[in-house]
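Objective 1b: paired records.
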Amino acid sequence: MYISSGELAKRFKVSVRTIRYYDQIGLVRPSKLSEGGKRFYSAEDCLILEKVILLKSLALPLDEIKRVIKDQSTETILLAHKSYMEEQLFNMQTSIAHTTSLLHILKLEGMIQWEDLITLIAPPVENRSWESFFSIEEQERLRGSLPKLEKDNVSTKKWINLVRRIELCIQENTSPGSEQAKLIIEDMENLSEETFQGDQNLMTKFWEVRRSRDFSNELNLYPIKQEILDFIEEAYAIIQGQ
């Protein structure tokens, strides 16, 4: 059974002009020509065109595609395409996660710095590793429980809202000794209990790192503003002194 170049173009969503060009360069040639010169393509021709389309998605030039089709099996071509699509999926998922992080930063700070937007096209430079601060066991526990700006889950939203409440207190000149501040600290303690699962030593160790903007930057953690840290520490001191 043969199909015309028009039917072939429609089936594979390419132009008839492209089909003709592939014939001219010997990439996908018709198995049959009518007396009037009309092209007709077999099932095998369709398979060759499908390979060409797959390889084009890998951004290969046509002369390289011609060589690959001649030398490689269908399985090899499909495996190459699968590998490429997996890489694209990983890149897309990474990009989505980073964009989600920037949206959370925008909610926290009300603006995005130019250098933050640059990281959408250029990955951040790797800094000091977590091994410098935490044991392997502690790292595993923290990575499994810490809120992540790239995630849009309930835990992350709770922490973001908590920080926003503190920012509002600062903007409205609400005292760290107020009832509102006391409720914020209670909520923070409850969230910390959920995050660190009652491990006071790990919680203290982690917050020592978070208090330092330099350490937070080295671990690629969202840096908490100093005024927020000061508010929290003063509120804690007032509560403990009561």
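Objective 1b, second protein:
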Amino acid sequence: MYEFPPTLQAAHERLSLVDPKHYAYSRNDLTGAVSYLSPYLTHGFLSVPDVATVMYHRHRLGLQHKLMMELGWREYYQHLHQHWGEAGIAASLHEGVLPESAYHTELPDDVRHACTRVPVIDQAVSTLYASGYLHNHARLWLASYLVHLRKVHWRVAADWLYGHLLDGDLASNYLSWQWVAGTGSNKPYLFNADNVEKFAPAPWHSRGTLLDTSYETLDILAHNPATVTQAGDRNDAGVDEPQVYSAPPEHLGFTAARADCVAGRQVWLVHPWALADVPADVPSDVVVVAASWSEHTHAHPWDTRRWQFVGDRMAALTPHRWWSSVPEMEAVLAQAHTVHTVAHLRLPDMPTVPWQQRAAPRLFRDLDKPCDSFSKWWVQVNKGVRHLQQLVYPTAPRA
């Protein structure tokens, strides 16, 4: 089972094990040489430039390598989030296979409890609950099944998945679901039992189920508003879904924001998406504060595993760990001399805080206008770039 210790050492050890050669040809296999870096990237232990730098130095990786393109997808989704905002990526970009009203707004109980009698789906849900992680291919299968066969609205299913992912990034999650649903792409993503058998171990194989059919039949089913389920006994016990929480568990030691900690002080603000070590060049008398906002966790609650992952890392950085509303947090931080932090799209707007924000680390350049496809974005951000070295060590502005 997947394990992700919430330490910088673990993140760098995982990075040192990345094998880009094997990744290139086995990444789609559930037992392939994927990086397992996503929780550390989402929560800012590492950045995409960090990974690119190591890949360049250790492996002389080229810019068009499959691993670099996958890292590009992460930044492409951030690019869309930046231009469209959370409201923009949380709504269907255009109509999908069926009208919005054709999709259910509740997750089926048999999916929620991993007792659909379709092995690939039950294995995916069980793995998600047990580890907080799913291989990307398994995420695509789960999403396709829910949207196109069970007719669950992609946003409902995406929010459920996010609550149990250690690496849940809002932009990557929402926009990946839209790609599968066909609301953010030109056609729906479909899969069948042959595809599962090609890329997954035996317990996931789904011969003799509703997936054991042709892509033509699956396309017909996706375009029909009827819900398709697996025939059989529905009395399977299944597994219990981990509870999600909109507030941190008490044992993690979060408190309300406290002005006496920061009034008149230089502050380094740690937040859930910037959990790297405190930079060496911040003022020597800086007070380190870790913060999470109730508005975000009420809208997007986490299960215990993710709270523990974030909370343990914050505890390693500072004894001051706050969970408050944005207005309460702003009122306290506004009393600091300066608040240093790393910018992030999830960082709330608090205009009265005396910010000194460092730019979010990005490998690829910003674009003034949103690109409606990854391929267009990839061409634009790599214009004039021939080698990865130019991105790892930029020497001049790129045209």
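The chain is about 40% helix and 5% strand. The first strand starts at residue 244 and ends at 245.
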